[in-house]
């Protein structure tokens, strides 16, 4: 998979960002005010509609067009009906490897594809491969649509002349590092064991999409040519255009760019049965994990089975919802588990059911496993209640509606239409599925659950310990190891020789038509009687509203003596109020189709609400209760304390989290509010020491009306919203306790450059995370420095990733970041690299950074591409109410005007290459970088000793 700029930064910056990226679940309401009943599920489902038209070119390309004029952008989504289940024997991982090659140039557009996408302001772009399909997608300004279609058509019709052995070798290395990265995570070998145990030898779904090392090593140019000619014809593809376009315009453009591509061979399907185990299977594995995880797995029908939505509901009720059976019994009541899950991975020909229970440390996993099986048997025997089915179906409908606010990306309208067309020959498959969800009853859900979950089961257990040779062998990493899936070419036949590339065609790259600068939605402001400021912007694409109550707190407000107080406080908000239990809060959210979430970024604590418009009033009531009246019941405090302690233990097994815990105190010092683990979980000592009084004290000190701002965006008006907010927050009075104040100060300790090595035995990769403090604060709004960082390491065509990934093939991703904090901004350098290149990777990164800051500053081409990307991507950056809300909160945090983003194009256009160099050289001193390396010390230490920096051994005692 090719990672876009945002997706590869989420994990790294989650604890540092000024906006909460992935808030944790949350909570409920206080006053018993009369509110309307939730909107009927049938009325919600009936309004979900993606109008479309379609046509087919003579060469077989199916084109689907959806018009949405809310923004001057168009989502382009190309789906090829080929994935890892189509791979021939001995070629596992090839579909995914080929996906990578599709990003590295075609005959009329050679060079990295993503640089060209950034140049035209593409957002939400990526490429993915799984068992059944490979897709490529991007959202572009309307004026750049011809360029995007040119690029997609050139790699569909004119790829082979640009594929070289060098490109194949480089991307082979990148994919192998992606494989190492996944396997380096806790539970990273489980998928291999599941597929081997659940599916018979030769089954096309039996091997992982990432493939085996030996098979990847064996891939040749002849394989590339054969795969392309066999699978990448227009007659095996679906193209969806969604957004600022109509079918007449689409037809003319698609015929122009794709009409001359000849059809490929008729697509050949690979059949796949839905196997049932002959008897229950037991598998035990060991890994460097914090908690024993129990798995229960079955293979069930593919996504075209009418029973699948019923089974999905059954799993949500059993272990997916916040109010699920497993969460209520094992986590809340019996307190023998710290996390549970029940979900389904749907594929075209079959699906996989997965139930997991993370056993609370110190509790007997065998006993918990027996209890899990007992609960499942009871559930299958008695079935769900009508209320459970309604809540699960409402949450499903709510999630669908939320996803359709985007035209593209991973879950937008283009993807929804494409998925239905490719898998079901029906772009409106989503409607049929929603109808099944809405009509489901306890009887229909029970019937599906009994039929498919009453069969023999795979019981897989992963316990703390050292990985075995047998477990590693399952991943296909042993020398010469290959898997043997079903084939579409006769195995044993001679491999074709690499043919001569066809004579390149000559197609001119079209210009970009004029693109209007961003028109940011009007921001309105008001004040409640309680003094709370309200910041609002309207967005009407879908009937939903998002509300975030932001408090000037965050992890920077954490108690230094008891680190983790802030995180434990927010985690407890939805675990009970003075009038509702945690289970009641969860159930009420589910009935309303709402989601309430509480989280800490570095500078702000946010309690957010996603609500369906018809249920906004009741949802706001729930939100207010959660914020204003948390109970902090002693038994819930202890339960959540145990969960967070387990989370901290888990972080100490995860390469990036280990580095994020180690680096901040080295950079900021112990006294600075940012000198704490970037993960936000605190320390074991701190979490153990927190009392209920500390939690109520934190709430009174920080989560109060005179420290709050309410941000809202969505399908309502300020006039409609204000009475609802007044009803819930207008009478909120500040407590007697003094409001909290954060003090930002640095100690005077020297922070010399050095390497801190943390040993993680058996690591197939080394995680590198380095940092230094710049002389800038977030309130300085250093936009020129941030733009320079795009050139250095912030974009997918930056210096650092082009060197470590694209030239050397040592890393799956690499880069630099300037986290959006309010006070002192650090520069972070990150790269997970293959173990034997750890020392060389640090040397290469140091040289890249030093060169950029001295003799090889920003080129005019880099300046132009970066400025174009920044300006042209703005219209697609605020498509959803969530993105809009985040931008409003960001502006408020660092004191920017409401129209800031509208002024950015002028600011960008005025920047010169010399301006970028000056900003970077003033703020960054590469000689101050402190490097944290997490890897296998016996293999890595000799390499680090040769780097030329002092090397220390680090430990994560707390």
Commentary on this structure:
The chain has 958 residues and is an alpha+beta fold. The protein has 35 helices and 26 strands. A 7-stranded mixed beta sheet has the order 1-18-19-17-20-16-15, sandwiched between helices. Strand 12 and strand 13 form a beta hairpin. The longest helix has 19 residues. The two termini are 35 Å apart.
Features:
958 residues; 6-stranded mixed beta sheet; 40% helix; alpha+beta; 7-stranded mixed beta sheet
Number of strands: 26
Subunit organisation of the chains: single chain
Structural class: alpha+beta
> Could you list the spans in which at least 5 consecutive residues all have pLDDT below 50?
1-34, 480-499
Largest sheet, spatial ordering of strands: 1-18-19-17-20-16-15
Shape: globular
Gyration radius, in Å: 27 Å
State the end-to-end CA separation.
Answer: 35 Å
> What is the count of helical runs?
35
Summarize the biggest pleated sheet.
7 strands, mixed
Strand percentage: 15-25%
- Percent in helix: 40-55%
The chain-level mean pLDDT equals 91
